[in-house]
Design brief:
With 459 residues, this protein is an alpha/beta fold. It is built from twelve helices and 21 strands. The chain is elongated. This is F-box domain-containing protein.
Length: 459
């Protein structure tokens, strides 16, 4: 039989005495339970040991509710447990629910139960500081019948003045947002993941009352046609969308925003765009932006106000093929012009599968690059070039070696069929003495970066 855990401490006489786990101060026990990642079912077992254990379990400030690997009676136990916490006015620091829905008929009832638990957590003590919801919809619950059910985020949660962090992962379920106003709130971080917004709600209304919101994260949020975001406190914004319905993103009056990440991967409908029915627009006004990442298909309308403090910009675009050459060039010109102040610029361009241009069509010689009169070339200090085709990129490298007056270093990554001796012979005559270069095969470069990362991790 296992012996109970005992801790030694000195009494008033200076002698060591054994102290049981439950004899420790409440905050120490709660901290130990939190470090162990104790779920509510673990607390349920512990609460059966003694009255003292039951009191410790009820008063714990960190709760993790999960119905995975539990029976049908567990929900009833949670109802009673949350009612007891509310009765005793227990303050909740972290409240996490990980709930699996495996029967479509019971989904609405389980949603209402989760809503009730949230309301009791907010009503108990001083409210709740951190809320994390994760819903898992199994195959039987993801049928069309279950799609009519939605999870209604309680208004009391949005109005909770103690709430600092809120994350909702709806598991591709439908989320019903409460109607504004939300009054005063000190929410600092909001994350919505795998969420379908009900009735095309204007999620921009969420921010009108969030005067302290600093981080906003939308990961695979669908069901909306437009997204208008403005905030006087927002510092970090990340939007990932695969929804073809989203046509407009408008980011305005975000003077404190310094980090913007946009991954707009939904494939635009060319035919609908031609009829004016699905043209996509991106408008950004963030004067203090320092980091900007934009990847996905190019938009039809792009407008970004000047960002004089921009330090790092990454542009990774998918273009619509050579039949859209004029639109592609216009998009690239506007986007590159908007990031002209960036100290570090990474550019990646690809085409839709099966629509990449023929080699003869976009193969510029060094003289062609020189005729472009690219002003940013004179400011370049370090460059990394990946050789995919070989000939086309080599002409660009020649141009940079010859014309980039401030260029200090260039890293060239090439595929294994290409010889480093061939590259050296082709490029040496264009290299200035002040410019250093390094040639890597792609595989050896990745291996070297992995070793560097490993050394940093073990230090």
């Amino acid at each position: 039989m296992e012996q109970p855990i005992m801790i030694k401490k000195q009494n008033s006489d200076g002698r060591d005495v054994n102290v049981g786990f439950i004899d420790l101060p409440d905050e120490v026990v709660h901290h130990i339970l939190n470090l162990q990642g104790a779920e509510l079912r673990d607390l349920a077992r512990l609460s059966m040991v003694s009255k003292r254990c039951r009191e410790l379990c009820i008063s714990t400030p960190n709760l993790l509710l999960s119905n995975i690997d539990t029976d049908d009676k567990f929900k009833s136990f949670v109802d009673k447990f949350m009612a007891l916490r509310c009765l005793h006015g227990v303050w909740t620091v972290r409240f996490q629910i990980r709930w699996s829905f495996d029967e479509a008929d019971a989904q609405a009832d389980q949603y209402r139960a989760v809503e009730t638990w949230l309301q009791r957590a907010v009503a108990s003590g001083g409210g709740v500081a951190n809320v994390r919801l994760q819903f898992i919809h199994l195959r039987k619950a993801s049928q069309s019948q279950s799609q009519s059910h939605s999870f209604a985020l309680p208004l009391c949660v949005m109005r909770c003045n103690s709430l600092r962090f809120l994350e909702v992962d709806a598991g591709n379920g439908v989320l019903k947002l409460p109607s504004p106003p939300y009054f005063a709130t000190k929410l600092r971080m909001l994350i919505l993941s795998n969420v379908k917004i009900e009735n095309d709600s204007n999620i921009g209304a969420l921010f009108s009352s969030f005067k302290s919101l600093e981080v906003l994260w939308f990961d695979n949020v669908s069901g909306i046609k437009s997204m208008s975001i403005s905030s006087s406190s927002l510092q970090i914004l990340s939007i990932t969308s695969f929804d073809s319905r989203l046509c407009d993103i408008d980011i305005q009056q975000v003077d404190k925003l310094h980090d913007l990440n946009l991954l707009w991967h939904a494939k635009p409908c060319t035919a609908a765009a031609g009829r004016g029915g699905s043209r996509r627009s991106l408008t950004i006004s963030a004067p203090n932006l320092r980091k900007f990442h934009f990847s996905g298909f190019a938009v039809d309308h792009y407008c970004m106000s000047e960002a004089p403090h921009l330090w790092q910009a990454t542009i990774a675009l998918l273009l619509r093929g050579v039949n859209q050459a004029a639109a592609n060039k216009n998009n690239l010109d506007k986007i590159l012009h908007s990031v002209k102040k960036a100290t570090n610029l990474t550019i990646g361009v690809g085409f839709e599968e099966g629509m990449s241009p023929r080699e003869q069509q976009h193969s510029l010689k060094m003289e062609d690059w020189e005729s472009q009169n690219l002003m940013f070339t004179h400011q370049l200090k370090t460059v990394t070039v990946k050789l995919f085709d070989g000939v086309k990129e080599i002409e660009l490298i020649k141009y940079l070696l010859k014309n980039a007056q401030e260029l200090q270093a260039i890293v060239i990554l090439y595929t294994s069929p290409m010889s480093s001796d061939f590259l050296t012979d082709e490029l040496t005559k264009y290299k200035k003495p002040s410019t250093k270069w390094r040639l890597y095969s792609t595989s050896s470069y990745i291996l070297n970066m992995g070793r560097v990362f490993h050394r940093k991790m073990v230090q």
